[in-house]
Each structure stands twice: as C-alpha cells, then as structure tokens.
UniProtKB/TrEMBL annotation:
<dbReference type="InterPro" id="IPR029068">
    <property type="entry name" value="Glyas_Bleomycin-R_OHBP_Dase"/>
</dbReference>
<feature type="domain" description="VOC">
    <location>
        <begin position="10"/>
        <end position="153"/>
    </location>
</feature>
<dbReference type="GO" id="GO:0004493">
    <property type="term" value="F:methylmalonyl-CoA epimerase activity"/>
</dbReference>
<dbReference type="InterPro" id="IPR037523">
    <property type="entry name" value="VOC_core"/>
</dbReference>
<dbReference type="GO" id="GO:0046872">
    <property type="term" value="F:metal ion binding"/>
</dbReference>
<protein>
    <submittedName>
        <fullName>Glyoxalase</fullName>
    </submittedName>
</protein>
<dbReference type="GO" id="GO:0046491">
    <property type="term" value="P:L-methylmalonyl-CoA metabolic process"/>
</dbReference>
<dbReference type="InterPro" id="IPR051785">
    <property type="entry name" value="MMCE/EMCE_epimerase"/>
</dbReference>
<dbReference type="InterPro" id="IPR004360">
    <property type="entry name" value="Glyas_Fos-R_dOase_dom"/>
</dbReference>
<keyword id="KW-0479">Metal-binding</keyword>
<dbReference type="Pfam" id="PF00903">
    <property type="entry name" value="Glyoxalase"/>
</dbReference>
C-alpha cells in the first residue's frame, strides 16, 4: 500500500523565537530538566530565502524531549519584533507539555518562578465534553510570552504510543 501521507504524521520540532537565547535556554532547561544538545548560528541568503527573507542570522539551540525537539531561535538579522497572541486569536499556537501529574507539574512551575495564567482544571461533564473526563490542564507563558500548556491526559487526549 502506498504511503499517501509522505511523512506528515510525524512531528520533528517546534521552533520558538525568543528575545534572548541564553535566558530562554536557562528557562527551558529548568522547565524540562533537560540540557540543550547544541548551540549554533546559521544564516546567509540561502537560509533567508527558505523563510522569504533577504538575509538572516539566527542564533539557536536544540533541546531534545522524549518525543519532540524544541528549536530555540534568536534572530539577529533581521532583528525580531515582539508578537503577542492570546490562545483565542487566529493563527496563535501553543506548545503543550504532557505530564503525569498536574499537581507535581504545578509545583515544578512554582519552583522555577513561573506564574500560571490561571488555576488548573480537571475536565468534567459540565465542561461540555463527550469524553476525556479526568484530563487536567493549565496554561502559562515563557519569559517572552509564548503560550505554553501542561496536560495530564485521559481518554481521547492520551496518545496510543507516547
């Protein structure tokens, strides 16, 4: 049988553009308990053209999680502009970290000085769902305002092969 997805069923990484690479490395290493695998710089016209730019220079670090890589990117050329998205805005995205226990994850956020956007909730029938009861979620932001989430999944929110 022919593979019609051409690989679009696998995610490799999420790229997060940041203001200060070193500060963001410290944040994501503290959050995940994982050290970056490398720090490097890429740039020039060839790379710029892949992004519709005339020229670019990007300082970056790669952080490997169990099932996804994070690319932490600081654009030197062209200089980055601050964007701000709330989760309800069209084209806004967020990165969700899967955790085993929402209370332990909330304690971890507190330990590294992160204030969540609100208190965590555990999904119940009153939330309008047909299934997934017992799933717990909370939202927070990184130092540059990137939308992040933690989830302790149940039911259809659980992946078959984590």
């Amino acid at each position: 049988m022919e593979n019609t997805t051409k690989g679009f069923t696998r995610a490799n990484h999420v790229g997060i553009t940041v203001k200060n690479l070193e500060k963001s490395i410290a944040f994501y290493e503290a959050l995940t308990g994982t050290k970056v695998s490398n720090i490097d710089v890429i740039g020039g016209e060839r790379m710029a053209k892949t992004q519709g730019l005339n020229d670019t220079q990007i300082k970056f670090a790669n952080l490997h999680l169990d099932n996804l890589n994070l690319d932490i990117l600081e654009y030197v050329i062209p200089e980055s502009e601050q964007a701000s998205y709330s989760n309800n805005q069209i084209s806004a995205m967020h990165l969700c970290f899967e955790v085993d226990n929402i209370d332990d994850a909330m304690q971890r956020l507190k330990e590294i000085g992160v204030e969540p956007d609100g208190e965590p909730i555990i999904f119940e029938e009153a939330d309008g769902l047909k299934s997934g009861y017992g799933t717990a979620v909370a939202y927070f932001r990184d130092p540059d305002g990137t939308n992040l989430e933690i989830i302790a999944p149940q039911g259809p929110f659980k992946r078959k092969n984590p």
